[in-house]
Amino acid sequence: MNLIVDQGNSICKLAIYEDGRVLWSTSVVALNEAILREVFAHNQIDSAIYSSVGVRCEHILEILKGHCALVIDLDASTPVPIEVLYDRSRLGSDRLAAVVGAYAQTLGERSCLVIDAGTAVTYEYLDAEGRYLGGNIAPGLWLRFKALASFTSKLPLIEDLPEETLPLYGTDTHSAMMSGCTHGFIREVQGAIDDILRSQADALILLTGGDSELLCKHCQSENIRLIPNLVFDGLNRILEYNKELRIKTNHED
Predict the structure, then answer these.
(1) Average pLDDT by stretches of 10, the chain with 253 residues
(2) Which of 73, 94, 211, 233 is catalytic?
(3) Domain segments of the chain: what residues?
(4) How far is CA 138 from CA 31, 106, 168, 190, in A?
């Protein structure tokens, strides 16, 4: 079994994989030793991958190494099964994992736009040859609400979720902010989708991240696929790829 540890900007996500399938997953605000010991006590985990977009926790890594024969601490030097034409020294591990997960979905047969809608919304382009050509980063929906509240004197922080049916215009400050930020967010993403489809009509559009369901409901294209576990899938594939490399190296020795 493989343990996937994905430390994001606001929460830490955990998953257990076996034979390429998710057996279990959860999210915690703060990962600690007690949580990990509980996971190891009830599962026969032999390998793990640790990914963090923020501060790396050496203590967590030491716990993983104490329980697993193989632990991959994902960084710019970690081998991955795709060609990366982006500066990996500045590439977030979650973005890289999403692209690897997308490659596992397409197997290099179609170009692909990966849209990960979380704290930030990221756009990653993978061509039909399986090469990661680059991407863009923009504020996610929650950051737009937070920016309005932080950089103005009277606008409130919007913390509730957008309604199923959004009015085109608000009738008070709250609904105006909700409508404006959400419609702007959706239109930005739709614009990115339209741009790629104009040049690559058969490109696959993969949506993931916390606001991906919202985008899936409002963005238009027959090529859109919602893949909630795309980053997990990519991290698991990177772990499996490094297992394969070690087996190959051992055989050659």
Answers:
(1) 91 95 94 94 97 88 96 96 96 95 87 95 94 97 97 94 86 95 97 97 96 96 97 97 90 68
(2) 94
(3) 2-73, 88-231
(4) 27, 25, 23, 14
